[in-house]
Structures are given as structure tokens and as C-alpha cells.
Design goal:
Number of strands: 23
Oligomer: single chain
CATH class of the largest domain: Alpha Beta
Number of helices: 9
Shape: globular
Largest sheet: 4 strands, mixed
CATH architecture of the largest domain: Alpha-Beta Complex
Strand content: 15-25%
CATH superfamily of the largest domain: DNA methylase specificity domains
Radius of gyration: 24 Å
CATH topology of the largest domain: Adenine-n6-DNA-methyltransferase TaqI, Chain A, domain 2
Number of domains: 3
Length: 389
């Protein structure tokens, strides 16, 4: 299919505000866009004269914001009908306002596509702070669909997106039930209101890192096995839909093979996701994990996996990780030594078991919803590939 430049479907940039006044504005910074939900999570209301120097781009309802920094994170959003009247965005965004012959939902979906992300990443410059220019964003090639086709495509994708959002909302509600039950049974973990005994994680579990892709191997006999990557470890669950494979030796497989009730934890990412973990319920046969994942195999005579997984979501663990993590330009990471020293509160095993029984019963509902979500997401990804390449 013929392709045209994104800029041909969008109006010229309106430029930047230079006015200096006490007029109140609602400011959108890069951090205001959630790169997972693709939505603006909040506005900072300030007088224009007090706004940062990068608060210069005027936006309106229907404007599409594309972050030009760290394009691999794909921080894009479209301003909805509830957008304040006087809204200013950071110069770190490329602002796209569609012409009359373009559907803004279509353009928004294109900017979320893998084709667009890969294009931006390939043209980004700057090793420590990769970025693209507005010109590069506007030069991205879009399939040349008619306006009517754009509307039909947008309708299909938006309907499917709504299904995905609903499934995620259902999962969040179930997770909230688990969190409420946890606090009810174990009290405030940060303040340790129940006075539970505290132990370091290394005294409660066997912790190992995984294997590195591209490592040098002398042995010729290799076996292809599933290979768990950071992207597969979500907050509280494992995403099995994109598990890849790796060739490994028999010794490596025996050393790193994942077992039921192992807890996987990532070494880094966004600061608010630091230390995220998930239990392996039913691992794929001979599945192993990469070096950016820690495998935590708990001594279940002291600590149960369901209790520990939920413990990681609470402030005592989160503040510990944030306090000791190495942070560079918005990315935080922990090492084996820091994870091993994680302080863990130890309630009685009987109480942990009661909580585990509750979680596992609720997980039956979660598994059903998660399966429906995965199917909807796979269909969405397939259609995005079909429409945008």
C-alpha cells in the first residue's frame, strides 16, 4: 500500500507561546503521560510566569502528544473531551493536530503501533538520553487509507481497546480485594503494627540471577528451551504470550530451570515498578530466565509465595528498593546484594496459609479474566500489524 508522511495528515505546528503573564495554565509534562495506558494522568495548574521554560506548546482537545524523548517507551496520548481549556504541553512533545482529511483516532492508533515505535527508535540520537525531533516524527510513513477507511479502522481498534480496558479494570478490582484482605490480616506492613518478626530475604530463600543471551558456550550439544525475559514478568502475573526461546546446555537448564511457586523479580525499570514480582504457577517445560531477572525460591516452611508476592506490593518493600536502588535518567535498578538484604516481615505460617487459600480461590477468577485479556490483546496486536505494518 502507498504510504505518506504523517505530517501530510496533520496541521503545521502552531509554534510556541512567548507570552509572560499571570494567566493560569494546565501544564502537561512528559511524566504526565502514562506510557502503558496512553493517557494523561494529571495536569499541573500554575501561573504561566511560574511555568518551566519548556512549557510552551499549546494543545487542545483532540491533540495527539508524542514524546520525542526515549521513543522506545512510546509515551503518547490523545487529549480527551475533559481537557482544560488553557492547556500547555512540554516542548518534549511533538503535537499532532489532524487536518480535515484525517481521523485523529486513526493517527493516535498509528502512533501506538510497533511500526512507528521501531521507526522512531531507529532514528533516535543520544546514547544516554535518546530523542527524535518533531521533523522526524512528522516524517513517519503512514499507510494512505481514505478518510472512510481510517474511521472504520479506528472504530474496530477502539472497540477492541475498550474490551481490553474493561478486562484490566476487572483485574484491578480483584487485585484490590487481595490488597484489602492482606492489610486486614497482617496490618500496616510499613509500620509493622502487628509486631511481626523481620528477617532478610537471603535467610528465607535461594536467589539466583539468570543466563545472558549471546554468552560464549564451548559445549556443542545445545537444547532449545523457553526463555523468560523481563517483559514477561508483570506486576503480579506472568505474560506467557510473548515468551521466546534460547539454546542452552543441559547444565544451564538444570541450574536455571523454573519450578512451580518460584517468584520472579526484575532488577530494574521505572522507579514505581522497581522490585515487581510474580509467582510462576505452571512453568513451561525446561523454562529458564535471563540475567535481568532474579529467581526467588522461598523456604515455604517459613514464607509462602502468595504472601511474599503481595508483600512486594506494599510500602515497606517498595521504599526499601527505592532507597537503595541505583537511578539514572528515570530508570532504577537493584543488584543481587540489595535484593538479598530485603527485610521481610514473617507472620505465622498458619495465617499466611489462610491468606494463600483466599488468593488462590480468587486467582481462579483472575485467570479467566486474564485469559480473555490476553486473547483480546493478541487480536489487537494482530490488527495493528495488519493495518500499520
Amino acid at each position: 500500500m502507498k504510504k505518506i508522511k504523517l505530517g501530510e495528515l496533520c496541521k503545521p505546528s502552531v509554534g510556541q507561546i512567548k507570552e509572560d503573564s499571570d494567566k493560569l495554565i494546565d501544564y502537561i509534562d512528559i511524566s504526565s503521560v502514562d506510557n502503558e495506558t496512553k493517557k494523561v494522568t494529571g495536569y499541573q495548574t500554575i501561573a504561566f510566569r511560574d511555568a518551566p521554560s519548556r512549557a510552551r506548546k499549546m494543545v487542545k482537545r483532540g491533540s495527539i502528544l508524542v514524546s520525542t524523548v526515549r521513543p522506545n517507551l512510546n509515551a503518547v496520548a490523545m487529549l480527551e473531551d475533559d481537557t482544560p481549556n488553557i492547556t500547555i504541553a512540554s516542548t518534549g512533545f511533538c503535537i499532532l493536530d489532524c487536518k480535515e482529511n484525517a481521523n485523529n483516532r486513526f493517527i493516535f492508533n498509528f502512533c501506538k503501533s510497533r511500526a512507528f515505535i521501531d521507526d522512531m527508535v531507529s532514528q533516535a540520537t543520544g546514547a544516554s538520553y535518546p530523542a527524535v525531533s518533531d521533523k522526524i516524527v512528522r516524517s513517519a510513513l503512514v499507510p494512505d487509507y481514505s478518510y472512510e477507511e481510517q474511521c472504520k479502522i479506528s472504530e474496530v481498534l477502539d472497540r477492541l481497546s475498550a474490551v481490553i480496558d474493561n478486562r484490566k479494570t476487572e483485574l484491578s478490582a480483584l487485585d484490590e480485594l487481595i490488597r484489602a484482605r492482606f492489610v486486614e490480616m497482617f496490618g500496616d506492613m510499613f509500620l509493622n503494627t502487628m509486631g511481626w518478626q523481620e528477617e532478610s530475604l537471603e535467610s528465607l530463600a535461594d536467589i539466583v540471577s539468570g543466563i545472558t543471551k549471546g554468552r560464549k558456550i564451548k559445549e556443542k550439544k545445545l537444547i532449545e528451551v523457553p526463555y523468560m525475559a523481563v517483559s514477561n514478568v508483570k506486576n503480579g502475573y506472568i505474560d506467557w504470550t510473548t515468551v521466546k526461546t534460547i539454546e542452552a546446555t543441559e547444565q544451564e537448564i538444570n541450574q536455571y530451570r523454573l519450578l512451580p511457586d518460584d517468584v520472579l523479580m526484575t532488577e530494574g525499570g521505572d522507579p514505581d515498578k522497581l522490585g515487581r514480582g510474580a509467582i510462576i504457577r505452571e512453568p513451561l517445560e525446561n523454562c529458564i530466565h535471563q540475567n535481568h531477572i532474579f529467581r526467588v525460591r522461598l523456604n515455604e516452611s517459613i514464607v509462602l509465595p502468595d504472601f511474599f508476592e503481595e508483600y512486594l506490593q506494599h510500602q515497606r518493600a517498595k521504599r526499601y528498593f527505592l532507597g537503595c536502588a541505583k537511578q539514572t535518567t528515570g530508570i532504577a535498578s537493584i543488584n543481587m546484594k540489595q535484593l538479598s538484604a530485603l527485610p521481610v516481615l514473617i507472620p505465622p505460617l498458619k495465617l499466611q496459609q489462610q491468606f494463600s487459600d483466599f488468593v488462590r480461590e480468587l486467582n481462579k477468577s483472575k485467570d479467566s479474566v486474564q485469559k480473555a485479556l490476553d486473547e483480546a490483546q493478541l487480536l489487537f496486536d494482530s490488527l495493528m500489524q495488519q493495518y500499520f505494518g
